[in-house]
Write a structure and sequence with these properties.
265 residues; elongated; alpha/beta; single chain
Length: 265
Amino acid sequence: MNPISIDDPDDPRLDPYRSLKATNLTRGRSEFIVEGRRLVERLLSSRHRALSVLALEREIPKMSALLGEGVATYTAAPELLSRLVGFPFHQGVLGHGRREPDPSLEEILGRPNRLGLVVCPRLTNPENLGAIARIADVFGLDAVLVGPSCPDPFSRRVLRVSMGAVLGLPVVEMNDPPALADRLIESRRIEIWGAVADPGASPHDMVTPPERFALVLGEEDQGLELPWLDRCHRLVTIPMRSGASSLNVAVAAGVLLERLTRPWR
């Protein structure tokens, strides 16, 4: 690994890193950008292919153990980095990756013993998806399943908020969420729990977590849609004081997943 110093802002090797804010628009693209040393290290250690790393010279020794001969490594001055990405950039390091295919749903459902899934049929906020992926990764879940209207898991904001969790935890897109619900039911080995803000639902801390589960989360302002409500084996809620507003969906996911995975620990 021999870093190449670049001082020409028009150097074509820097093209993937230009106008970083535009990398939120990653839907359908095979390549993505990560920011910061921790996320670059997660990329270098993941199943996804690292194509290049661009960093301040002082950052290179901190990652030398992970930078192999197959990863192009470039260095640039702070002023050039900020000009390149389009705003003052203080993280010091960027990574350019190519996403590899996620495991298929059949592979995920075929795993023996315990299984934990988070299902997000409709979610519009990338920060929420990033936080949910990070929480699911912390609690050792097997995958997050997202509907076609959800943000791209490799967009800049999802990657950043998830702290790179999406580089390791499969985030699998569902083209037909109701059909997926039927597929989960047909498997007969997965209990579907729907999270709702309904005082008539089962308090989450008063029921026994199943060994294999799929926790379904609705959009904050609409809740779970009817096709999922009809297919859930159990509806659970987080008891709150009278008059309290509902929790942010990512916060609710953290509370519920802590309960669901407690037997695993």
